[in-house]
Specification:
It is found in: Cell inner membrane; Cell membrane. Keywords: Cell inner membrane, Cell membrane, Membrane, Molybdenum, Transmembrane, Transmembrane helix, Transport. It is a multi-pass membrane protein. Belongs to the binding-protein-dependent transport system permease family. CysTW subfamily. The structure is a single chain. The protein has 228 residues and is mainly alpha-helical. Helices cover 76% and strands 0% of the residues. It has eleven helices and no strands. Helix 1 packs parallel to helix 5, helix 5 runs antiparallel to helix 9 and helix 10 packs antiparallel against helix 11.
Length: 228
């Protein structure tokens, strides 16, 4: 019996994992200060920033992908900026996929982190202040350890959501084998070609992956102290 997945399938799987890993790491770096600000600020801009971060939850992926495609194209403001730096344009490149994925998966990382920061409360921060800890010391020595469950949840959700993307990555990356063709697009190609056996293997793998992610999330939450 021959292996059910060919080289293009394996390349799509690898590219998807690479994209999801890089996107998750970038989101943790970018999303942590945004979540911390949202959890702590009393600024009137809080509602506006929170709404912008949450937009991918309600907007169709094709809408986000379209505007990203236009803005990153040769005549868009992002495209003109990247061209001025000698980087060319981002659409139909792996870098473009990363940018689109970071924006599309932003709320799945920021919101769990914001909830974790909010749940810490004021008391630990006040104790750290009485011990004359600097803001940086307080954040890394007190906030981060207490918010660890939030970081775990944010990492899992960000990674899983990026793996399941379709509309945004198709709009921005197109369908270039071994460069921008991720698993969701590969499944679409197999279905279009009526290659249902290959589509079943990839779709089944995605289904199993999604189930295991949700199972891991629910298990980790039940293991937390005080969970009922």
């Amino acid at each position: 019996m021959s292996f059910p997945l060919d080289r293009t399938d394996l390349a799509a799987i690898w590219l998807t994992l690479e994209l999801a890993t890089l996107t998750t790491l970038l989101l943790l770096v970018v999303g942590t200060p945004i979540a911390w600000w949202l959890a702590r600020t009393r600024s009137r801009l809080k509602a506006l920033v929170a709404a912008v971060v949450a937009l991918p939850l309600v907007l169709p992926p094709t809408v986000i992908g379209f505007y990203l495609l236009v803005s990153m194209g040769p005549h868009g403001f992002i495209g003109q900026f990247t061209q001025s730096l000698g980087l060319g344009t981002l659409p139909f490149t792996f870098a473009g996929l990363v940018v689109g994925s970071v924006i599309y998966s932003m709320p799945f990382v920021v919101q769990p982190l914001q909830n974790a920061f909010t749940a810490i409360g004021e008391r630990p921060l006040e104790v750290a202040a009485t011990l004359r800890a600097s803001p940086w010391d307080t954040f890394f020595s007190v906030v981060l350890p207490l918010a660890k469950p939030g970081f775990v949840t944010a990492s899992i959700l960000g990674f899983a959501h990026t793996v399941g993307e379709f509309g945004v990555v198709l709009m921005i990356g197109g369908n270039i084998p071994e460069k921008t063709r991720v698993v969701s697009v590969q499944i679409f190609d197999h279905v279009e070609a009526m290659e249902y056996a290959q589509a079943h293997w990839l779709a089944g793998g995605m289904l199993l992956f999604s189930f295991l992610i949700l199972l891991a999330l629910n298990t980790s939450r039940r293991l937390k102290p005080g969970w009922t």
